[in-house]
Automatic annotation (TrEMBL):
It comes from Aestuariispira insulae. GO terms for molecular function: ATP binding; ATP hydrolysis activity. The keyword Transport applies. Gene3D superfamilies: P-loop containing nucleotide triphosphate hydrolases. Residues 6-247 form the ABC transporter domain. The keyword ATP-binding applies. This is Amino acid/amide ABC transporter ATP-binding protein 1 (HAAT family). SUPFAM superfamilies: P-loop containing nucleoside triphosphate hydrolases (SSF52540). Keywords: ATP-binding, Nucleotide-binding, Transport.
């Protein structure tokens, strides 16, 4: 028996006349990496926004750990274990990498991200943050000011911040974007190593990474899931090749 982490039914969201999310059904099981692929503008980020809570659906259901989360705030969902990879823009650039992770740990415990000056000097907190930095390979840069980290290191830092929230489901929106081949490969291996502890809904254009990581793939086109299947099923699908892979 697998545990259903996330279950989405009949989800709809329009911007004016544009149906950005059009009757989407999708689920993520514990221990699963479910990849969401589709062309630019297909509605992938809009879907993630509704799951994380920044965007309110027009219709449909989002159940996380068997609970209706639509009425819940972003912060409440995060505390339930719905983790969204931090956008680089949400990192505090003027403080160290370590401090950013400490802020994430504090956010899990309920305090706001904005009050970075109120970082507690607490050894337990610091140790926990260091562990996350070590896991993503950033321990050597713990004391580096975030604005001085490379693009790739900031992506690693985002993942460390997301993990600090101890999520049960991680929502990742194009984590490989802007990483070189080596960086993508390292992140791919790292995400693989996370599978036992956290389910992942992975939006990614890097098809090598998707084919390597995904247990299932859903293909989103014009707001609709046109197909969900295993890597082999999706690779062989004539409909997907035509609509998305352009073959
Ligand atoms: P993807 O992440 O798959 O590239 P998005 O979810 O970002 O696609 O966008 C889906 C569609 O919704 C696009 O046509 C985009 O222009 C539109 N869209 C996204 N957010 C908004 C918004 N806040 N207001 C109006 N249109 C939006
Ligand atoms: Mg997007």
């Amino acid at each position: 028996m697998t545990e259903t982490l996330l279950e989405i039914k009949g989800l709809r969201k329009s911007f004016g006349a544009l149906k950005a999310t059009d009757d989407v059904n999708l689920d993520v099981q514990a221990g699963e990496i479910h990849a969401l692929i589709g062309p630019n503008g297909a509605g992938k980020s809009t879907l993630i926004g509704q799951i994380a809570g920044g965007l309110k659906p027009d219709e449909g259901q989002i159940r996380f750990l068997n609970r209706d989360v639509i009425p819940l705030s972003v912060a409440k969902r995060a505390r339930m274990g719905l983790g969204r990879s931090f956008q680089i823009s949400s990192l505090a650039m003027e403080v160290s990498a370590l401090k950013n992770v400490i802020l994430a740990v504090q956010a899990r415990e309920g305090s706001s991200f904005k009050f970075w000056k109120q970082v507690r000097s607490d050894q337990g907190l610091m140790d926990e943050a260091m562990i996350q930095l070590e896991r993503v390979g950033l321990a050597d840069s713990a004391r580096t000011v975030t604005s001085e980290l490379s693009h790739g290191q900031r992506r690693q830092l985002e993942v460390a911040c997301a993990l600090a929230l101890k999520p049960k489901l991680l929502l990742l929106d194009e984590p490989m974007a802007g990483l070189g081949a080596g960086g993508s490969q390292r992140l791919t291996e790292f995400l693989e190593s996370l599978k036992a502890e956290v389910g992942i809904l992975l939006i990614e254009h890097d098809m090598d990474a998707v084919f390597q990581l995904a247990d299932r793939i859903s293909v989103l086109v014009y707001g609709r899931v046109i197909e969900t299947g295993t890597v082999d099923q999706i690779r062989q699908s004539a409909q997907v090749r035509e609509a998305y892979l352009g073959e």
